[in-house]
Amino acid sequence: xxxxxxxxxxxxxxxxFLACDIGSETVKCLAFSFSNGASVxxxxxxxxxxxxxxxxxxxxxIDLDEVEDAVRNAMLQAVGELDEKVTSVVFGVSGDLSxxxxxxxxxxxxxxxxxxxQEVNDIFGxxxxxSYDQVQNEIAEVTGMSDLEIERITSSVVYTKxxxxxxxxxxxxxxxxxxxxxxxAYCPTYHIKALQTLAKKLxxxxxxxxxxxxxxVKSLKYSKGDALDCVVLDVGGEYTQAGVVFGGGILTMRxxxxxxxxxxxxxxxxxxxxxLDAEDKKAQYSFDKLPEEESLRVQGSLxxxxxxWLSGVxxxxxxxxxxxxxxxxxxxxxxxxxxxxVLNCVKNEPWTKGIPxxxxxxxxxxxxxxxxxxxxxTGRADVCDLLLPASLSIIYMETKGCL
Length: 403
Fold this sequence. Notes:
With 403 residues, the chain is an alpha/beta fold. The chain has three domains: 16-96 and 189-223 and 367-399, Nucleotidyltransferase, domain 5 (2-Layer Sandwich), CATH 3.30.420.40; 98-187, Dna Ligase, domain 1 (2-Layer Sandwich); 255-365, ATPase, nucleotide binding domain (Nucleotidyltransferase, domain 5, 2-Layer Sandwich). The chain has eleven helices and 17 strands. It has helices at residues 64-79, 117-143, 189-202, 212-224, 260-271, 275-286, 292-301, 303-319, 340-348, 387-391, 393-399, and strands at 16-22, 26-33, 41-50, 56-57, 60-61, 88-93, 99-108, 150-162, 165-167, 177-188, 205-211, 230-235, 240-246, 249-256, 329-333, 362-365, 374-376. Strand 12 (230-235) and strand 13 form a beta hairpin.
């Protein structure tokens, strides 16, 4: 369940919707075709639009007019020649705009009494209170801001057990021991209000504002199974977010303020070219389209920033207090992963030796093959930076009760 669904008024029934990811440098928008009752969403359009440097920071909207123009352009590209007007949208949030964790509550109760909806709701309320306080403490520790207003955007049951056995719905059943694990994600109120304003300007109806890490992990469960244990590294423009997953649920998330834009800045500085030219140069380098000598110059420009990034990732793992051992499967996603140095760096450097993995870690990039609830009718969506907006379709399907 995504708690902001329906928050903005009754949604018009439509067979199409949009998923929008506002990054620090690019807006990515996917158009989906979806039939009520179906269990797969089909990508029917892809749109991208560049943002002026500085108009968004790690997804936070700085220049609303500039972001509005970029979202409109990306949306028009994605919608293309579709016959119907598409007005429903799911916005994704990640990095420092998304704070989330799984909270588990175990309750001992009268054996013969039937579990009521009110009893479950009371448990949810306790989880929400606990997770809210925990997120506020984390924000204060990381940013020093103890009064940042946040709102819950995503809430989903990871699992429910009665007397140690998994059940789909505890309501109406009996049992002495009730265990419930609930994932909750929060977003700063200022960003939610900015997205509301943006949607109003673009005449869009917000179906949901959801955690992209949650959407990705939820999507992965359909290919990897409920027993999914892994670490997800989302390398964005100005951040890297790590999510620790056990039993198909996100235990906790941490964010490092280093991403692909820092690699661009390093290339710009070392080669003496503009930021935009460095961005183009990085793209050519990533897709092996540069002459060998020029490619080596770009690679040399990245050494220092990759060292800093890897040290930061190592520190992230040290920040996950309460995790005794990490699952060895590490999945990489996000626009920054297009840079080949990212995967080479994590695979070849001995940084993992001081981290308690259950077995030697295995690294791999995710692809659309890992998202069985998504089909690509365009042939253009199976790239690292589009997997997160693609996974947002799972949130739309949840709001429609199709999962």
